[in-house]
Amino acid sequence: MSDPLRIEVRVNGRTRAFEVRPHHTLLDSLRDDLGLTGTKACCLVGECGACTVLLNGRSVDACLVLAVEADGGDVVTVEGLAVDGQLSALQAAFLETGAAQCGFCIPGQLMAAHALLATTPDPDRAGIEEGLAGNYCRCAGYEQIIEAVQLAARGTTGPSDAHPAADAHSARAAHPDAADRPDVADRPDAQVAPQ
Amino acid sequence: MRPFRYERPDRLADAVALLGEGSARVLAGGTDLVIRLRDGSLRPEVVVDVKRIAEIDDGIHEVDDRIVIGARAVMTDIAAHPRIRADFPALAEAALVVGSVQIRNRATLAGNVCNASPAADTAPALLVYDAVVVATGPDGERRIPIDAFFVRSGVTTLGPGELVTAIELPLPTQPRGSVHQRRTRRRGHDLASVTLACAITPDGTTRLAYGSVGPRPVLATAAGHAGPVGEVLERMLAAAAPSPTSLRASPEYRLAMLRVHAERALDTARRRLAEQAAQ
């Protein structure tokens, strides 16, 4: 019962093969097996959104996905937003507006906003509120977060300008240097030794 | 989380066999199941992930005189589907208020009905549209009218080893105005204190279904000439029996809000019917 299972997941553009226990979540695996601690663990019931990542292009709460469910899938975490060490337009907008107070919710906010802008490049305020309704900020920095998303969206309205935030993942994934980024490199200990 | 065995069958028959083993739970979107695995309120020996079963799809298809929603179809896709939005707007509206974007990207309609929460937002819409739950079990396939599916919180008429493969919606044969309405404690994502759907056809036949005001969602139907609206509503809402112990809202508040939202839903459904007739 509950034997480790070998899974293969593309994480931030790089394929990782490792073993997981069936009862470990994607959140557990990202943080503990792959060392990607940008994704935060908080409510663990799908309310707060701190663990938001993209799974096959869609935002999900990683605390409610079993790691084994991601087998064969494509995962993007907050570590995958920057391209070649350059913050994405969305990340830059968060900095610009001072959207991060304590910062704990910001990875989840960024991933939810990234997913929103990928499908709705120019959302209105209500659209942003709804798009981020699954992400709590207990500092209550919502105004600055919404401003940041508006700022990033406005950056896309220029002529012939593809959306930098929404394209960041595909651009990075296609980039020949993507595999050399230290934060997504395979760790030698990626073989998991469950407790 | 307590350890369990994980199975990911490719074939429906294998899933049915696994579910027949006893302590097994179905994993579709996981937005309810994983919470309950973590808090220990469910302790299955086997978790059967149905997302790779060839016979169960995540699509929404028109087949003959009905729309077939695969058991893996998620709320995001149901809410956005043009045909659902046009012919079953109460379902699209209900799917759009389930949880957050992240939840809707994972949560399936089939999971929502199997979970049988009295507050399930999609349940009233499925009731007013006469949805049919398609299930396969050891004795083959069965088609269960949605009103005969819900029993009480967490309990349905699915038998041991039975698995929902699709949910079907009969296409409307005449114009119909319909809407979903709900009351929550706050804006943003929350469980409903009252959730309801209403559908009206040109002869005045009114179908009203409501949840979160009793152990299971209830469907009430009234003919077009049934009497003054106030009295008809009174009769249609008579089956509401909210729990006095629920934390979300008092029974008095729920009953009062049920009435308010039922009236609003009637108005909206009538207006939508008139808009259809005008087209």
Topology, please?
The complex is a heterodimer of chains A (195) and B (279).
Chain A: E1 5-11, E2 14-20, H1 26-33, E3 52-55, E4 58-61, E5 74-76, H2 89-97, H3 106-119, H4 125-131, H5 142-154, H6 164-174
Parallel strand pairs in A: 1-5
Antiparallel strand pairs in A: 1-2, 3-4, 3-5
Helix pairs in contact in A: 2-5
Chain B: E1 5-7, H1 12-19, E2 24-27, H2 33-39, E3 46-49, E4 60-63, E5 66-70, H3 75-80, H4 82-87, H5 89-95, H6 101-104, H7 109-115, H8 122-128, E6 132-137, E7 140-145, E8 150-152, E9 155-156, E10 163-170, E11 177-184, E12 192-200, E13 206-211, E14 218-222, H9 229-236, H10 251-278
Parallel strand pairs in B: 1-3, 2-3
Antiparallel strand pairs in B: 4-5, 5-10, 6-7, 6-10, 8-9, 11-12, 12-13, 13-14
Helix pairs in contact in B: 5-8
Highlighted features:
heterodimer, A: 195 residues, alpha+beta, five-stranded mixed beta sheet, 6 helices, 13% strand, disordered C terminus, B: 279 residues, five-stranded antiparallel beta sheet, four-stranded antiparallel beta sheet, 14 strands
Instruction: Tell me the structural class of chain B.
Output: alpha+beta
How many DSSP E strands of chain B? 14
How far the N terminus sits from the C terminus of chain A, by CA atoms, comes to 15 Å
- The helical percent of chain A reads 25-40%
Report strand order across the widest sheet of chain B. Answer: 4-5-10-6-7
Label the overall shape of chain A: globular
Low-confidence stretches of chain B: none
The number of helical elements of chain A comes to 6
How big a fraction of the residues of chain A is strand? 5-15%
Strand order of the biggest β-sheet of chain A: 2-1-5-3-4
